[in-house]
Amino acid sequence: MQVAICSVLVGLPLALVVASVLARCRFPGKSLIDALIHLPLVVPPVVTGYLLLLSLGRRGILGAWLYEQFDIVFAFRWTGAVIAALVMSFPLMVRPMRLSMENIDRRLEDAARTLGASPVRVYLSVTLPLAIPGIVVAALLGFARSLGEFGATITFVGNIPGETRTLSSAIYTFMQTPEGDRSALHLTIVSLGISLLALVASEYCARRAQAVVHGI
Amino acid sequence: MSLEVRVRRRLGEFEIDVDFRAGPGITALFGRSGCGKTSIVNMIAGLLKPDRGSVSVDGRVLYDSELRIDVPVHRRRVACVFQDARLFPNLSVRKNLLYGWRLSPRQERSTSFEHVVDMLGIGSLLDRRPGALSGGERQRVAIGRALLTSPSILLMDEPLASLDAQRKAEIVPYIERLRRDFGLSMVYVSHAVEEVLRLADTVVMLQNGRVGAVGTLEETLGRIDLYPVMGRKEAGSILATLVVAHDDSDALTTLRFDGGLLQIPRVNLPPGTHLRIHVRARDIALAVQRPEGISIRNILAGRVTEMADSAGAYVEVKVAVGGSSLVSRISRQAARELRIAIGHDVFVLIKSIAIDTNSLGILPPADYLPRITASAQGAIPGVRAAEGDELLDLPLH
């Protein structure tokens, strides 16, 4: 739960920047970056987790440097679980935002420019408000993916009680232990509740945002 | 105010290459769809970059490919009203109106929010959202939004094209008031003759991305060689006239122009109003002798100055009547049988009801006064204009 919220909070602004750049700018290597972002969507989660361990683990290329310079460790820590969830949910957050931005009528942005708005102001006052439905969807998808993330998490940070045990891995653990069925069922109900709540909330937000965007 | 545009731009197979200047008032960019009107407006606004050339407003260079000047769109102070209004759907009407006003430098604001709202009659719409407005209301809000940026020039790209006739009639007076109350220079893009007739002071006629003609309305729309641009149905001549009298019992109005008097269906304008009228070529008949026992009220004597063969069964004949020119379209056969040729004297017959009172342009008096007074004194040599007058036995003031 904590992991999922953190992952959305950190990931959403990052994904917004990436989505804006992908939707509005043209530059060489754009399709490569696009492919890289979408990679976790198609590669098995375990592979992603293993790659994270290789790069960000204590002896990984990046991880070793981070440990030596800043004493930061991600592997087998809850922060690592956030990173795993983030990487896995990132494409799901970028995609809806990018689509909603690409769907905005460029001519509205042109109109804003002729009214004296600088490009930054056009982005803040026209593009962003009109992309809100996409941003809401992105937040929900990101949250759902983070909550359910299992493969990459267990590979990268393991399943340490009190540190890296997420809802999904906890259910898995209870299922493995004898007489854990009841606890597993409890947690399943909890996760169902959270998911349902998130869905209803996002549906409400999306509807409000749609109404605003379409000027009704 | 002056606008100078000299731009080239290739768009696929099509090339725009125009060079024109426009003075104060409303300049119409007129031509058929797809002749490059909108692209030219976009180049003035900065939304489309020319391949080569320059654009300047009031001597302020907005773009010059040689001097490498390209003022960004938001600093050009060129406001646009688009065909599709383009209001921000997420903002209320009030916030739409204030969008550009808030961004304009305080010391350059030339109008107030209240004044614009009042003039456009949109006070009751302020708290609504654009989605809940009619087409005409939307366009009025768009005009207000553009005005509130205190622009140095206002570009209107077919602002009436997506509205029905009734809505158009609702908006046109507001555009006329813009010219009068704000003294604002405008570039008005249109493919509709009647809008151009009613609003334009200067006409830039465009044909396949080139300038066909630039000049006053009378000079450009009267040119027979440009009739294909206008469309044969609407082509005709423009007369600058003065309202002299009304005949209430017969519901007629008498106009004086440089060449005589004209009777048209009653218009609700005080005598002394300067009026621009459009007489379609297909509504004018010619006679070689003064006809008698005829229902046509307006019979004017003139001399043929120009003839143009068109592809079909018709000939366009330009007749000088006093200092004015009228174009008539008659059948080729009639022209041959009556031996109508350049230099011949003819009588021009215009049905009163043929003059479309919807396309009348009310003019600011100063512009046209000298010309009309000159004709009233009969100052133009070789004019036999007075001959038509005897049929119009209305008291003149």
Which chains share the greatest interface?
Answer: A-B, 23 and 31 residues
- What's the number of extended β-strand segments of chain A? 0
The structural class of chain A is mainly alpha
Number of helices of chain A: 11
* Radius of gyration of chain A, whole Å: 20 Å
Taking pLDDT < 50 over at least 5 consecutive residues as the criterion, the unreliable ranges of chain B are 365-397
Low-confidence stretches of chain A: none
Number of H- or I-type helical stretches of chain B: 10
Summed over residues and divided by their number, the pLDDT of chain A gives a mean of: 81
Neighbour order of strands in the largest sheet of chain B: 7-8-9-3-10-11
Mean pLDDT reading of chain B = 81
Termini separation of chain B: 36 Å
Write down the overall geometry of chain B.
globular
Total strands of chain B: the figure is 21
What is the radius of gyration of chain B? 23 Å
User: Helicity of chain A, in percent?
Assistant: over 70%
Strand content of chain B: 25-35%
Look at the helices and sheets of chain B and give the structural class.
alpha+beta
Largest sheet of chain A: none
What's the shape of chain A? globular
Oligomer: heterodimer
What would a concise description of this structure say?
Chain A has 216 residues and is mainly α. Chain A has helices spanning 2-24, 30-42, 45-56, 61-70, 78-103, 106-114, 119-130, 132-148, 151-156, 167-176, 181-213.
